[in-house]
Structures are given as structure tokens and as C-alpha cells.
């Protein structure tokens, strides 16, 4: 009888151990199994963007202007360009404290809720402008990727594609405030600045070559040069960037911008470019609130794009545009782009304005502007920290009457 009891005990212990092993094994498998592939990597195939399964993907999005590069007209700062802001803060407070202020600004300007807002509006893309000085440390090393990583990770969590857009190259490609440097055009033909910009793109591509939520790399924003348009000087530099990036990243689409018309970019076969997209910015300044003018402007642009696409066989992307404050102009342009498979990103998500009224951003408003030359450290910190969308920015006409169609 005792022998039988002992046998029962042994069997019971064996069952307990087996059960425990099974639970641990199941837990281990559930936490170490290979995740399901998402097939999000995009390629340019003919006139379309397609994912890894060959499905066509239409990109409609918004720009994240103002996060990394502050333009005085649309951001809470009184300064001619971002480099001037950086240098002023560094000279007054030292490097570490200046960077702490910049971080406070960035942390407030764009938060996780902003990604949710964009997702809820039905966008599947954010174009993210950045400059070389956003990822440089004090020694000039390209190591400060934390904020870019954070942005990309949040896009990935929400299945929102992101385009990395070099708005500010070394030496500046246009000497405009949106490059962060208004001191002059010192990129094209400047060996040092060209080499540093090439090295920047190689560093970015090496870091993100496996990130399939990145739709592409926008190589240079509005590269006007000193002559105000793109020609062989910019094309040849694009080709240097293309070759350098392709040494480390064969996956991502490379986006070439024209200033301003379709004849400002070459046939990609001239350079042997593959997996590229051509991009344009549309601002009809001559009569901003007249529907007929804006309609004709849109029609002319789209006709040129379609003719070029037929000839060059590349996807097209309107990387920036606005239709100002006329609701009919907005609805017409958005419908025309979408019906003709022209991908787009509106400029922009958020605009600082004292009046709270602007057609340039989905959200408008903000707190008092910072004066980097005279405001105290604590004043700058408090002002910039208050510029979160939820606290100080409101929907505008663009949101109420266009993007939500009055719903």
C-alpha cells in the first residue's frame, strides 16, 4: 500500500513539473517567436509606390514643420534663423543649458497626442523636416539621433509612414530661414560642405536602412542654390548623394526635389537612378484667395506632372503646399491630387500665431514668443514648455471645413 502511495506521489510530482515546464515553454515561445512580417517597405515601381506584396500605396500626409527648425513667422521665437537662435542661447547660457531649452521646446511642440491627431484625420504620412545641426553634438559628430528615433518609433506604433526631409544641409542649399541658416548659399560647389552633407546622409541611411516605416529620404528641401532653380549643378550633387546612400541602403526611396517646375529635374535614366520619386512644392502666391486662380494653378501643375510621369515613369509627390484660406480651393486641389494618384503632404500641422487664425496649420495659436537675446532662462523655459498643441493651439478652418468635411 505504501509502495502504491509513493507511486501516486511520484506521478503527481511528474505532472506538476511537466505542467510547469509547459507553462514556461509557452511563455518563452510567445516572447521569442519571430514577429509577423508587415511588408511595409515601399518601392517606386513605375508611377506608383508599392509595398513588399505589390500592393499600391497612396501617401497623403502632413508636414511636421517647426519641430526641428524654427521659422519666425510660424514658431514662437523672435530670430532670423535657427542657427542664430542656437548660437545666441549657447553664448548666453552655455551649450548644455541651451540644448536643455531646445529640448524643452521640442518636447512641447510635438507630443504623442500629435501623432494620434494625425492618425485620426486619416493621414498615413508625416514629412519630417530636420537639419544637420539637429543631429550634431558639440564636437560636430553625428550622434544625436534620440529625437529622430522617438519620432520614427511613434510613427511605427501607429502605422504612419515618415519621410525624412533634409531641410537644412551644411552651408545651406538656399539661404532661407527654413534651412535654418540665412547667411548664404554655401553648399553647391563647396567641397567641405558637400562632403559633410554626403556623410550625413550616409549616417542617416546606415542607421535607418532597415526601418520599413520610413517611406523615403527627401534629399534636399528646395535646393534653389544662388540662381533660384535646379539644374545640372543640383542634379550632379543629387547623384553624389544617390551613390553614397546606395552603398549602405538599397531599400529606401530617394526623393529628388525640383525648383520649381517639371523641367527642373532630369530623366532618371540620365543618371541611372532607380527607386526614386520626384517632388514639387506648390504655392500659388499671385491671388491666394481666389478660387478660379487657384483652380487654374492646380490644373496647370497637375497637367505638367502627368506629362512628366508618363515620360519619366516615376511616382510624384507634392511635398509642400497650401491653398490658403479658400475652402473651395482646398477641396478642389485635394480631390485633384488624389484622383490623379499624386501623393502629397500639406504644409503644415501646426503654426504659431498671436491671432489664433491662420490657414497654414491645422492647429494655430500658441503662447508669447521667445526673444533669445533678452528673455531670461526661466522665461524661455516657461514660454516654450507651454507650447503643446493640447494646451495652446486650436483647430482652424482647415480642420473644420476641409479635412473633416464638416463632420
Which term fits the overall shape? globular
Strand content: 15-25%
CATH level-3 fold name = TIM Barrel
CATH superfamily: Glycosidases
Secondary-structure-derived class: alpha/beta
How many distinct domains? 1
Q: What is the chain-wise order of helices and strands? A: HEEEEHHHEHHEHEHEEHEHEEEHHEH
CATH class: Alpha Beta
Keywords:
407 residues, alpha/beta, TIM Barrel, eight-stranded parallel β-barrel, three-stranded antiparallel beta sheet, 13 helices, 14 strands, 15% strand, globular
Explain how this protein is built.
It is a single chain. The protein is an alpha/beta fold and 407 residues long. Helix content is 42%, strand content 15%. It is built from 13 helices and 14 strands. It has helices at 2-32, 82-93, 95-109, 112-120, 132-135, 146-157, 191-208, 232-246, 291-312, 327-339, 377-385, 389-392, 397-403; strands at 43-45, 48-50, 56-57, 60-63, 125-131, 161-168, 214-218, 253-257, 276-282, 316-321, 343-346, 350-352, 363-365, 393-395.
In short:
Helices cover 42% and strands 15% of the residues. With 407 residues, it is an alpha/beta fold.
Blueprint (SSEs and pairs):
Layout: H1 2-32, E1 43-45, E2 48-50, E3 56-57, E4 60-63, H2 82-93, H3 95-109, H4 112-120, E5 125-131, H5 132-135, H6 146-157, E6 161-168, H7 191-208, E7 214-218, H8 232-246, E8 253-257, E9 276-282, H9 291-312, E10 316-321, H10 327-339, E11 343-346, E12 350-352, E13 363-365, H11 377-385, H12 389-392, E14 393-395, H13 397-403
Parallel strand pairs: 4-5, 4-11, 5-6, 6-7, 7-8, 8-9, 9-10, 10-11, 12-13
Antiparallel strand pairs: 1-2, 2-3, 13-14
